[in-house]
Amino acid sequence: MENNARTMLADAVGATARDPLKFVLLAFPWGSGELAGFDGPDKWQREVLEDIGRALHDGGTSKAICQAVASGHGIGKSALVSWIVLWAMATCPDCKAVVTANTEAQLRTKTWAELAKWHRLCFCGRWFTLTATALISSIPEHGKTWRCDQVPWSERNTEAFAGLHNKGKRVLLIYDEASAIPDTIWEVSEGAMTDENTEILWLAFGNPTRNNGRFRECFGKLKHRWTCRQIDSRSATMTNKEQLQAWIDDYGEDSDFVRVRVKGEFPRAGTCQFIGSDIVAEARARDLEPDQYKLAPRIVGVDVARFGEDQSVITKRQGLKCFPQKRLRGVDTMTLAGIVADTCQEWKPDAVFVDGCGVGAGVVDRLRQLGFDVVDVQAGARAINPSKFANRRAEMWAKMREWLLMADIPDDAELDADLTGLEFGYIPSGALQLEKKDDAKKRGLASPDGGDSLAATFYAPVVSHADAETMRKRIEAKRYDPLEW
Asked: Where in the chain is the domain with CATH 3.40.50.300?
């Protein structure tokens, strides 16, 4: 009886080899358990699955099936990616698949976490073993040939994309948050599109954060090769309509932020990413000699955690050099103040900038009580140059972005994600506005605590104690003998 059930399931799944929508409707317990209240994919998801099925029926081995979806936030993109992966693997023996994303964190915490959920719910999920980095056939002898791998992209290591061949069978390549994937990775991936008599699917999803690059070209000069869709978040069933309207109210209906995060339209500016990944990558690779920064003022910046999942971060910066950060979870304000005090006593900084918003005020007060000269950082305060920046936080980050062009920062993936994750827009006056922390979190990013800690070191100009003493002596000299000037 059990063997008959297995055979029936295998036959039913096999019948969906060229019909991914039929597979999705069959493979999951719609209407019950975790899926109570859901009768299947959303309208836009159905249309993408139908497009793939139609292309497969129309000659899916004669040319690559290329689909690009630019969307607003929260429409169910990761769920669709998971369904397509499971369909592709379950309906073609020895299918070879690769999923990549804009960052390793996106792959691990969003894409792969969603795949884990749907793998668990899938009626044929036991056919495959899900690891931290791969979905692998449960048949031991097929473990190396029937698999989907999670591969973070790297411009220095493109072999995983160059070697994506599977002649006579099926190749699946998925880009998640495709706008931020460099052109070099797209170019190398083209090599996988050349196998004859092979089902090749290349799918690119993401918020349209850049108005240049290969993802943008899918909707422009390469549109003849790609089936393209742009999804407004307001048209999707599962999105939080109140939050979307709040963004429209905060940033403006026609702002780049709303165009990208709500409407699924490409921005008018070159990119909504405030600090480019290339800038941070070069700063991580840079290795300055001590002579290049040792005479500069020593500065400490502290970002204070507001919620349990956030981190308090202590940053030491001297000129163009940022030293490894200290990240702390679950510490109270008094403990944090003590750790900052120890850091200051050991390193003797010329200035200490502490995030004094909310609970951070307690850290500022305690450090001052201990005798430290602390600057209370108020990120929401009026900018020094209000015609250019909406508030002090945008101004600090802008100074940090300029500094990064020549800086040496730790080779730290977490700091990298903090620096490159935030986006920006403009308020009606034309002043630059940085994306709010809460908004970044709502689209799946961790709070950029390390980035804010480093940015705090740019809150105000700093001179070293030695320079300050020299200036004091010059002032005293001028007071008594003007001719010395």
From this structure: 2-263
Sheet with 96-101, side-by-side order of all strands: 128-130, 134-137, 147-150, 96-101, 170-176, 199-206, 65-71, 227-231
- In the chain, the N- to C-terminal Cα span, in Å, equals 101
Q: In whole angstroms, what is the distance from residue 98 CA to residue 172 CA?
A: 6
Domain range 2-263, CATH class = alpha beta
Distance CA 297, CA 478 (A): 25
Ranges in the chain annotated CATH 3.30.420.240 = 277-466
Enter the CATH code of domain 277-466: 3.30.420.240
Our CA angle for 439, 85, 26, nearest 5°, is 105
Q: What is the mean pLDDT of each run of 10 residues along the chain (485 residues)?
A: 72 94 96 93 97 87 87 94 97 93 81 96 95 94 91 67 75 91 84 80 92 87 91 94 90 84 82 81 94 95 84 96 95 95 96 94 96 95 93 96 97 89 80 85 79 97 70 52 42
Q: Which two tokens stand for residue 465?
A: 């104690």
Q: Taken in order 69, 424, 457, 404, is the CA torsion positive or negative?
A: positive
